[in-house]
Amino acid sequence: MSLPNIFKPGVTQGIIERINKLSPEITPDWGKMNVAQMLSHCNVTYELTYEQKHPRPNAFIRFILRNLVKKIVVGEKPYARNSRTAPVFMVTGDKDFYQEKERLVNHIKQTQELGESHFEGKENLSFGTMTATEWNNMFYKHLDHHLTQFGA
To answer: How many of the other CB atoms lie within 10 Å of CB of 52?
Structure first.
C-alpha cells in the first residue's frame, strides 16, 4: 500500500489541518519532546532539503545511512514509537510553538508547490539521489508519525 502523496494539494491540506489542531499545551502519547520541540524536529527534514544549515555527513556516515537507514526512512512501513533519531534531529531546549508551526506549514506548502517533478532524482544529503516517491514517503511518514504522537 502506498503512502498518501504529500505533493497533492488535498494531502498537504490534510496535514496542515492536523498541525492546526495542535496547541502549546498538548502532551505526547509517547516520547520526550514537547509539541514545540516536535515541530522544530520536523522542520529539520526541510532544513536539510532547502537550507545550508546542517553539515553534510562524511563519506563513511553517508555509506552507512544509504545502506542501513535509507530503507527505513523512505519505505512505507511506519516508524516504531520511541525509535532512535539522528543527532541532527535531536531538539532540546525551549522552542517557540507558533514560530515552529509557521515554519513547518510554510515548508510543507513549499514542498507541495515545487511538486513531484522537482524531487524526482534530487539528491538528499544523507541518502543520495532519491525518487519522488522516496521523498514523498520520507516527508509524509515523518509528519504522520509525529502528528499521531501528539494525537493530531
So the answer is: 9
Instruction: Give residue-wise pLDDT tens across range 77-132.
Output: 988 898 888 777 889 899 999 999 999 999 999 999 999 999 999 999 999 999 99
Separation CA 21–CA 103 (nearest Å): 16
Return all residues near 82 (Cβ < 8 A) that are at least 6 apart: 30, 31
Q: Which of 93, 101, 115 is nearest to 152 (CA)?
A: 101
Q: Mind listing the pLDDT tens digit for each residue in 13-30?
A: 999 999 999 999 999 999
The DSSP code sequence of 19-32 is HHT--TT---SSSS
Tell me 66's DSSP state. I
Residue with cell 498538548: 26
